[in-house]
Amino acid sequence: MELFCDEVMSELLDDNLATASFDGKNWSNPQHGGGCSAGHFIKWHTIKNQEESVAQDVARIRSHPLVPKNIPIYGYIYDVKTGKINEVAEATKVGKAA
Length: 98
Prior knowledge:
98 residues
């Protein structure tokens, strides 16, 4: 979800509904026509910065009234290239138990 933004997804769908191609830099449709403008009204929940996104999610969980304050909450990012799980320091800080 970090390889595109809402605008790019909406434009691709507006042009064509077939699976788009990614060349490592840009998205493009293999064919044109037959798209649908409904994609402009969907929030795709794209991610610009994984660490920031994880920290925000942990903060949201930490502040939820149904989550006990004495339970620590952690945030990690799975690296698909290495197979490692990396802790997000800011998320751990935000999720610290009271």
